[in-house]
Amino acid sequence: MIASGLPDLDPSGDDVHRAKDVAVAPDGTVYFNVGSSSNANPDDRTFSPPRAVIMAVRPDGSDLRVVEEGVRNGEGLAVAPGGIVWTAVNERDNIPDAAGQVVQSFVNEHPPDEVVPVTAGRDLGWPYCDPDQDADHGSLADVPLVPDPVTNPGGRTMNCAALAPVEVGLPAHSAPLGMSFLEGTAVPAPWSGGAVLAVHGSWDRQPPRAPAILWLAWNGAKDTLMPAITLVSGFQNADGSRWGRPVDVVPGPGGALYVSDDMASATTAWRQARFHNWLWYFCYPAEGSAAVRRISARACSAAWLSGWSAAIKSPSRTPSVRSMAWMTSARVAGRSVPGSARRSAASWCWALAR
Description:
Elements: E1 22-24, E2 30-34, E3 53-57, E4 65-69, E5 74-79, E6 85-89, H1 104-107, E7 113-117, E8 122-123, E9 129-131, E10 141-143, E11 145-147, E12 166-170, E13 176-181, E14 194-199, E15 212-219, E16 224-225, E17 229-232, E18 246-251, E19 257-261, E20 269-273, H2 275-283, H3 290-313, H4 321-333, H5 339-353
Helix pairs in contact: 2-3, 3-4, 3-5, 4-5
């Protein structure tokens, strides 16, 4: 044992988050999260031992310390290229709007969850400051923090503008869990140049935020992650019911990703997904002639890969993946089939993109 006396279910609160993530930096320092005991209670910031923090300790048990505070529930600890530890943070639920009222339409999109580096002395502001993409025209990059209207009205308790913006926001109530950086793994480019993140999906959003595997490109020039794109979806049905909820995603041999799931079976279910094979089966339609179905699958696979690659290279200037799906599927299918089949393949891929 290298760290003892940590809080677990004590003190009790309205939303206790247990410690469960560990990452080891290149210098041997062990980082771990200690989540809050509440949804948004300022008392958490006064507890001893501390809660709502990322802590670190030397392998011999010395130098136990708080590294980052104001972290409601810092899951997904992972080591980025260059050795910096990052965390994916589950933000608060049932956030009030500017008038202090809990309105479902506002709750649905606020606050974004967070993906940030673990930086000594940094404060993410919880529960006094909330990340708010609306304060920056909806962008999920460098999301500013604004005063919470209930816990910090008018910024009287904490100056949120003085805090560093959140490097990457995720759609509200994504519930990020396990994260892995892919540099140096067998996962092929361009995916090796980023991180994958399992998001569990919401419990309080209407309609529910869908579970997924996300991918975030790594910007080596700025040593930061870029806003996420969806890599694997389909865990949630149209009526909001789910057959799976990803918990973690890690690279394995042969360029595969392994996804753990806490819903698909009574025990943890591991699924191997090679990118091209997964795309083929995802894109394969259930109807139509065998020839058109094969064309549709091949065309849509190419479309999604082209759309993602374009988004990676120039996320602010490229067409949406949906538009890329239409254009690329029509182009790929057009190499070998008449116009009717091209339209069928493109329409199928467009429907998937929606």
